[in-house]
Amino acid sequence: MPRFAEELRQRRHGYWLVHLRTVPRPAPAPGACGKIGAVMTVASQPPELAGIVARLRAAGCVFAEDEAGLLVEAAGTPAELAAMVDRRIAGHPLEQVLGWAEFAGLRILLEPGVFVPRRRTELLVREAAAVAPPGALVVDLCCGSGAIGAALLATGDRIELHAVDIDPAAVRCARRNIAAAGGGQVYPGDLYAPLPTTLQGQVDVVVANVPYVPTEAIDTLPPEAREHEPPLALDGGPDGLEVLRRVTTQAARWLAPGGHLFVETSSGQVGQAVDAFERGGLVPRVARSAELGATVVAGRRPV
Ligand SMILES: C[S@@+](CC[C@H](N)C(=O)[O-])C[C@H]1O[C@@H](n2cnc3c(N)ncnc32)[C@H](O)[C@@H]1O
């Protein structure tokens, strides 16, 4: 069923936008055009809009009409619209051009160069939300824009959130998104290193969408990801699991007895990821969603 995100009945740049709605889309390749997935009905299509659609389509945007509508909605002036269309045609991810991404029903603010949250990561949010008790102490490692933490805050269970990212631009975004979702601490730094040591042995849930693309596969990613998302957000080392192993090695020290770690992986990495969880003293479980094209490895610290 379509989910209506917004209904616009306003005149922008000389024409009427009538319905703007988001619909579930099949999961596109990471970084592919059209991740936001909007459908727009334009009451009367002026030549300018048709021109934008044609330029976007010629640049390879699969959902050119939808994107044109989103760009028109986001731009404050015709000059701004022209600049945004140019950036999009030059290959910048739509979400970075708009300055936001839709994730788990939230509008997540994004700066250029910050990893665009993927819809498949909503599986990780669902899995974590299912086990987090009310008032849970949650740590989001490799938080990027803060999308996962913000989505967990939005569940309304008054979680206490501590988030970490090594990239200053990501930390800036996460601070804004997490503040808007209810608040939490966001630290710059390497994995667990900046967390207060008082959290050791206390954490109910650690979520970590670490970089997990094998170094050799980076060149095969769509240009939007390869050229406009930082390598640090994508590159997981020779087998893609280097950061994951660093997370699992230290997880039991931070988790409370019975606490959980959740990490997203590719389907081909599950066996090695499960081994890493076991070596870290966690009892592993694998969750998959065919709809989202997502795999999450979960691990519980024994009581
Ligand atoms: C795949 S992105 C995920 C971002 C966010 N969690 C999401 O799902 O949208 C990985 C993030 O990990 C961060 N990162 C990479 N290595 C890190 C490290 N050693 N410590 C903390 N953050 C790291 C990157 O800056 C990037 O923001």
Brief sketch in words of this structure:
This protein has 303 residues and is of the alpha/beta class. The chain is 34% helix and 24% strand. It is built from 11 helices and 13 strands.
- The CATH topology of the largest domain comes to Rossmann fold
What is the CA-CA span between the terminal residues? 41 Å
**Helix count?**
11
**Class by alpha and beta content:** alpha/beta
Which quaternary structure do these chains form?
single chain
CATH homologous group name of the largest domain: Vaccinia Virus protein VP39
CATH domain class name of the largest domain: Alpha Beta
Bound molecules: S-adenosylmethionine
Q: What would the principal axes of the Cα set say about the shape?
A: globular
CATH architecture of the largest domain: 3-Layer(aba) Sandwich
Strand order across the largest sheet: 9-8-7-10-11-13-12
Biggest sheet, open or closed, and with what strands and sense? Answer: 7 strands, mixed
Strand content: 15-25%
* Poorly predicted regions: 1-35, 37-43
Helix and strand sequence: EEEEHHHHEEHEHEHEEHHHEHEE
Structure overview:
The protein has 303 residues and is an alpha/beta fold. It has 2 domains: 3-98, no CATH class; 119-300, Vaccinia Virus protein VP39 (Rossmann fold, 3-Layer(aba) Sandwich), CATH 3.40.50. It is 34% helix and 24% strand. It is built from 11 helices and 13 strands. The chain has helices spanning 47-58, 64-74, 78-89, 94-98, 122-131, 147-153, 168-181, 223-228, 231-234, 242-254, 270-279, and strands at residues 3-6, 10-12, 15-22, 38-42, 100-103, 106-109, 137-141, 160-165, 185-188, 203-208, 255-265, 283-289, 294-300. The protein has a 7-stranded mixed sheet, with helices on both faces. The longest helix has 14 residues, at 168-181.
